[in-house]
Structure formats: C-alpha cells, structure tokens
Amino acid sequence: MTSALYDSFIADYYDESPVVKGRLQDVAFYRDAARDFGDPVLELGCGTGRVTMALAQAGKRVTGLDLSERMLERAVKKRAALFTEERERIHLVQGDMARFDLGEKFRLIIIPFRPLQHLLEVKQQTDCLECVSKHLAPGGRLVLDVFQTDAERMHDPVHMREMLVTEYNTPTGGR
Q1: Is the pLDDT of residue 117 over 90?
Q2: Span 4-18, mean pLDDT?
Q3: Number of alpha carbons in the 13 Å side-chain half-sphere of residue 118
Q4: 33 CB contacts (<8 Å, ≥6 apart)?
C-alpha cells in the first residue's frame, strides 16, 4: 500500500476505525515484549503511534518509523499530549520500512498490526527484513504481526471483534 492512500483519507479515520479503536490486547502483548527484551525499541509502520505511545508510557525508548507524513502528524499530536518524560522517549521518523538506515541498534524491533503486508513485492519484504537484521542488537528480537486474509471471516461480524490470541511454546523455547 502506498503512502498516498494513507495520506489521502485513512490517516484521518484510522484511530476511530472499529478494527483499530478497540484493539488493546496487542498493545499489552508488545508492552510485555518490550519488558522482556528491553529497549530501545523500533516500531516499523508505527502509523499514528497507537503502540509507540503505550511503550513510551511504559518507560521504553521507542523509535517509530512510518512512510505516511499524515499518520506521523497524528502521532506527533499524540506525543504532545504525553508527560514530558514520556515524550522524550519517542523519536518519530518518516521513512520506508524496506529502505532505512537509522544508525542505531535495537533490542526489539516490532511490526504490529500487519504493515509488513503493505509490502506487496517479495523484494520489498526481503529488503525490510535485511534492514531489520542490520538494526537488531546482538540477542535482539523481531516480533511481527501477519494476518491470513479470509474474505468470509472479514465480512463476519463475530470475527471483526478482537479475539483472544493463543500462544504456543516451541520445542526450542520460543513463543
């Protein structure tokens, strides 16, 4: 998806969208991940800062990167409403998640709520993962959200509500 689409109308309504407005479980998940893996945290596709702000409020230093200037304008407004020490933990960057160089390593890199799926070309996806690899600190973690699109589910009101996420422990100790 291009920045133009977000900059045209999605940025204006994103936070009030029924799919976004009630989402709280994922924020708690990323807050726990930041607690477990440490900071600094890099959020790719940060949009209006829904997750970014929550991490800063939890005491984490966060860099949010997004392609859309209008989404970032909304994030800047949200940041301005925070306490001074929370605001100072947030650095917002306009950039392409498939081509970025921030000159910093991160303990945790997150791609919440599916922005990786906005990279439609395999080359963009691999470029993004290569950038992630260059920015991960030793022992750092990448946590990303992907969604298997299913037209039937997308139009079923029961599935439009947030559902509990099931976690599985892998044999290698991952989760």
Answers
A1: no
A2: 63
A3: 22
A4: 108, 110, 141, 143
Token readout for 4 is 């133009």
Q: Which residue do the tokens 């909304």 mark?
A: 74
Which carries the bigger pLDDT value, residue 100 or residue 11?
A: 100
- Residue 136 near residue 109 (C-beta atoms within 8 A): yes
Q: Distance between CA atoms of 26 and 57, rounded to whole angstroms? A: 15
Find how far residue 48's CA is from the centre of its chain.
Answer: 10
Q: What are phi and psi of 165, to 5 degrees?
A: -95, 135
**CA–CA separation, 121 and 118 (whole Å):** 9
Maximal C-alpha separation, the chain: 46
Tokens for 3? 């920045």
Q: Which residues pair with 111 in a beta bridge?
A: 144
- Residue (of 8, 158, 144) closest to 70 by Cα position: 8
pLDDT digits (tens, 9 = 90+) for 68-112: 998 999 999 999 999 999 999 999 999 999 999 999 999 999 999
Which helix or strand (DSSP H or E) is residue 55 part of? helix 50-57
pLDDT of 34-45, one tens digit each? 999 999 999 999
Place of tokens 């921030």: 102
Amino acid letter at 155? H
Q: What is the pTM of this model?
A: 0.79
